[in-house]
């Protein structure tokens, strides 16, 4: 049974890495629009390459855990939810500086909202005893 256990563990690791990559694609997706606005036409796989580079940097800095994958997905959701309205309402379609600034703002909000000490502080403040 050790061979089956090893195979199951490898499949699980593959699924976690795939979830990490797919979560990161929504984080780096605004960079495609930025590159298009400066005149560089990125290839169709540029988002996956950027996500893989960010994933490699994350994995070099910390071990791969489901908590990290959940945080990455949370950041991706917040980046998407904040960046698209900024892009549309501020009409930043052809403005590379505006696209980068709105992406940085959305990324900052996403990282702040998924920061564990912030959640603990909010929970402690809202807890009624």
Describe the protein in words.
This protein is an all-alpha fold. It has one domain (2-126). 81% of the residues lie in helices and 0% in strands. The chain has helices spanning 2-28, 30-37, 46-61, 66-89, 96-113, 116-126. The radius of gyration is 18 Å and the shape is flat. The chain starts with a helix and ends with a helix. 17% of the residues are buried.
- Tell me, rounded to a whole number, the average pLDDT: 86
Can you give the helix content as a percent range?
over 70%
Helix-strand string = HHHHHH
Shape: flat
Q: Pick out the low-confidence regions.
A: none
Q: In oligomeric terms, what are we looking at?
A: single chain
Class by helix and strand content? mainly alpha
Concise account of the structure shown:
Keywords: Membrane, Transmembrane, Transmembrane helix. With 129 residues, the protein is mainly alpha-helical.
Summary keywords:
6 helices
SSE diagram, text form:
Blueprint: H1 2-28, H2 30-37, H3 46-61, H4 66-89, H5 96-113, H6 116-126
Keywords: Membrane, Transmembrane, Transmembrane helix
Transmembrane segments: 12-31, 43-61, 68-90, 96-118
């Amino acid at each position: 049974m050790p061979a089956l256990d090893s195979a199951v563990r490898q499949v699980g690791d593959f699924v976690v890495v795939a979830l990490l990559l797919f979560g990161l694609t929504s984080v780096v997706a605004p960079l495609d629009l930025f590159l298009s606005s400066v005149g560089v036409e990125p290839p169709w796989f540029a988002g996956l390459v950027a996500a893989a580079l960010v994933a490699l940097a994350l994995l070099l800095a910390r071990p791969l855990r489901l908590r990290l994958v959940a945080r990455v997905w949370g950041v991706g959701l917040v980046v998407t939810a904040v960046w698209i309205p900024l892009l549309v309402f501020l009409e930043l379609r052809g403005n590379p500086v505006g696209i980068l600034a709105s992406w940085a703002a959305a990324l900052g909000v996403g990282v702040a909202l998924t920061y564990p000490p912030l959640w603990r502080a909010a929970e402690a403040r809202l807890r009624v005893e």
